[in-house]
Amino acid sequence: MGLTSPVSGNHSIRIQNKKWMWITPSGIPRYNLREEDLVKVHLETGKTFGRLTPSIEWYMHVSIYKKLGKVNAIVHTHGPYTLGIAISVIKFRQIIEEAKIVVGNPVIIPNKPSGSTELANIVSEAFRNSGDKIRAVIIRNHGVVAVGTNIHQARAVVEALEEWAKILTISKIFGGPKYKID
Questions:
Q1: Out of 12, 23, 38, 124, which could bridge 63 as a Cys pair, Cβ 3.0 to 4.6 Å?
Q2: Active-site pick, 35, 57, 125, 162
Q3: 73 forms bridges with which residues in the sheet?
Q4: Rounded distance, CA 106 to CA 134, Å?
Q5: Is 57 an active-site residue?
Q6: 181: closest CA among 164, 169, 166?
């Protein structure tokens, strides 16, 4: 859908009494991804099972799961319109009712090095500090992290956010949004 390149972004789901997650591997094009390519990671020890290396962002996923008990799925993408808004002077304004319902109020945070504990900590803290009010954290110059109770809900968040960003971008071309949702 244009939200990632074939080897970027990552997805995970939490399983088995919330002690494990399955995450996409590092460096495998998504169009070649097979079930046996997924990597199982223990959320407490970080021990991995699988023949491939987990995504570089595995610790960010673990950190979010540890802090958010209701979250069972995470989708991390690099939506170009969402990132374009996040690094510009344009602010995300509530202009689409459906996006507001699905996405909530996204938070924009500064970027930190990919795969770092620093990035994992600021992303998971942004979610934790907002309670249940947000479902997406936008990392400037990096990407979007969306959470859900299942993978379909987390994916819907990034898709709705990107649609919101596209509409906001188009409205900016025509002079900016004149109407917003109260």
A1: 124
A2: 57
A3: 13, 148
A4: 6
A5: yes
A6: 164
* pTM for the predicted model, two decimal places: 0.91
- Per-residue pLDDT 10s for the chain (182 aa) are 666 666 678 999 999 788 999 999 998 888 889 999 999 999 999 999 999 999 999 999 999 999 998 999 999 999 999 999 888 866 666 656 777 788 888 889 999 999 999 999 999 999 998 877 789 999 999 999 999 999 999 999 999 999 988 988 888 888 877 776 66
H helix intervals, the chain? 58-67, 80-86, 97-103, 117-130, 151-173
Q: Which residues of 78-104 are buried (b: 16+ CB within 10 A; e: fewer)?
A: bbebbbebbeeebebeebbeebeebbb
- 150 and 16 Cβ atoms separated by less than 8 Å: no
